[in-house]
Amino acid sequence: MSYKETCIKVMAWLNFGLALAGLAKFLPIGYLMVLSVWEPIDPAANEWSIDLISDTYLIVLVWCVALVIIRALSGHFIVRPWRHP
To answer: Can you tell me the distance from the alpha carbon of 19 to that of 16, in angstroms, rounded to the nearest whole number?
Structure first.
């Protein structure tokens, strides 16, 4: 495996990690929604969870730019790095 291929693989794995982190940002608000069935939500916790997901569009933008860079370097869209040889 050449240095370029290794760099592309590393970038693909980091981009996948970024996607997972973007999804993990929604866990607190999901937890609060489930918790709200049994008791009222603390307004501070609700504001914090909304603020946490308010910049998700930036994560999506960076993820898409990285995906385009990976495509330009490798010729493939590598969204799931474990499935790419």
So the answer is: 5
**Two structure tokens written together for 7:** 């760099």
pLDDT in tens, 5-62: 999 999 999 999 999 999 999 999 899 989 888 888 888 888 988 898 888 999 999 9
* Annotated domain spans of the chain: 3-78
User: What is the end-to-end Cα distance of the chain in Å, rounded?
Assistant: 10
Q: What is the pTM of this model?
A: 0.84
Residues in the chain: 85
User: How far is the C-alpha of 56 from the C-alpha of 20, rounded, in Å?
Assistant: 12
